[in-house]
Design a protein that fits this description.
- The protein is an alpha/beta fold.
- It has helices spanning 19-30, 44-51, 80-93, 130-143, 147-165, 173-181; strands at 11-15, 34-38, 55-58, 72-75, 96-99, 112-116, 119-123.
- It folds into two domains: 11-110, Rossmann fold (3-Layer(aba) Sandwich); 147-181, no CATH class.
- It has six helices and seven strands, in the order βαβαββαβββααα.
- It is elongated and about 55 Å long.
Length: 187
C-alpha cells in the first residue's frame, strides 16, 4: 500500500550520516518534519543543514532511547546490530521505521518519487529492486513536464471556485475533463 504521510512539524529521526541518510533527510525536510540526525560522521550537506539550524545533529553512534517521541525513523547506519536494536526500539516506542536495504525490518518502504508542483507520483517495487524504481522514476521525470503542475493548479483553482460558489464538482465535470484532456487524452 502506497501512502503519503503528513509530517509537517512532526519529529523524525535519522540514524546514519551517509548518502542514503542524506536522501532521507532531504525528503523529511521537504515534508516539513523536525529532523534529528544521530551519526558520528556526516556528509557535507548534512553538516550544512545542521550548521544552518535546519536539523538537530547528535554526533555519536545510535543508542537506545534515540527514537523516543519520533513519528517516523530511518536507519541508514550500515550496522546490522544497530539496525536490529533500532527495530526493537521502534516496536517498543510505536515508531514507524525504515531500514535501508533491509525490507524485512521495515514498517514502510520508500517509493521513488517524481514531483511536479502539487503532483506526486510514487513508484514502489516492494523492495524487490530499488534500481528498477529509480530508472522508472528517471523516465517519468523526462515524460512528465511542468505542464502537469500547471494543469493541476488550474484544477485546484476550479475546485476552489466550485466550493466558493456552492456548486457541486459534478457541475464542472466537462471543464475538469477538458483541462485533463490537454495532457492526458482519453483512451
Amino acid at each position: 500500500m502506497l501512502i503519503s504521510l503528513n509530517l509537517r512539524d512532526r519529529p523524525a529521526v535519522v540514524l546514519g550520516g551517509g548518502p542514503i541518510a542524506q536522501r532521507r533527510i532531504d525528503a523529511l525536510l521537504e515534508a516539513g518534519a523536525r529532523v534529528t540526525v544521530v551519526s558520528p560522521e556526516v556528509t557535507p550537506d548534512i553538516e550544512r543543514w545542521a550548521s544552518a539550524g535546519r536539523i538537530h545533529l547528535d554526533r555519536r553512534r545510535y543508542r537506545t532511547g534515540d527514537l523516543r517521541g519520533a513519528r517516523v525513523a530511518f536507519a541508514a547506519t550500515g550496522d546490522g546490530e544497530a539496525n536490529r536494536v533500532a527495530r526493537e526500539e521502534a516496536d517498543a516506542q510505536g515508531v514507524w521505521l525504515n531500514v535501508a536495504d533491509e525490507p524485512a525490518l521495515c514498517d514502510f518502504l520508500m517509493p521513488a518519487v517524481v514531483r511536479r508542483g502539487r503532483l506526486t507520483v510514487g513508484i514502489s517495487t516492494g523492495g524487490a529492486s530499488p534500481a528498477f524504481a529509480a530508472r522508472l522514476r528517471r523516465k517519468l521525470e523526462r515524460d512528465l513536464g511542468p505542464e502537469y503542475a500547471a494543469i493541476l493548479d488550474k484544477l485546484a483553482d476550479l475546485r476552489a471556485r466550485c466550493r466558493k460558489e456552492g456548486r457541486p464538482l459534478s457541475a464542472a465535470r466537462a471543464e475538469i475533463d477538458a483541462l485533463i484532456d490537454t495532457i492526458l487524452p482519453r483512451e
